[in-house]
Amino acid sequence: MSPLAAFLAGASAALLTATPLAFWLGRRSVEQDDFPGDHDPYAEPHGEDVRLIGVGIGLAILTAAGVVAGVSIGFAHEAPSGWEYPRDCCSAYDCYPVPAGALRFGPGGITVEATGETFPSRSTIVRPSGDGAFHRCSRAGDPAKPTICLFVPGGV
Question: Residue 42 above 90 pLDDT?
């Protein structure tokens, strides 16, 4: 799913959720005196009515903004250069740049110094870097945890 499609899906979901919420929070009780003393049906709401409507609308806006922001953030995880990590390697926080010294290249493949893992050059874990820098994806972005993907400039 593209970031634009994710944003539109999130916005639609937020509106479908927030609109009924706003009406529910902004509703007025049937038993409550809705109008001034003369019971003029065209009079403006007053007192608690206005406050409840404001709270309902405010919460609806915050809910919509939170859902849209959450969806947008969840689908956008980029390297500092702006290159987007592949979704099959990254859960929005697993990938990060690493210096070349964090990896050791040898006849057996590429070794990740932090974990001691060695991957053959033709492993599905080793991939070409999209920005010419070294990157590693590990569980929860923890350098001590197993490697999900390893990005090497120009591939190997």
Answer: no
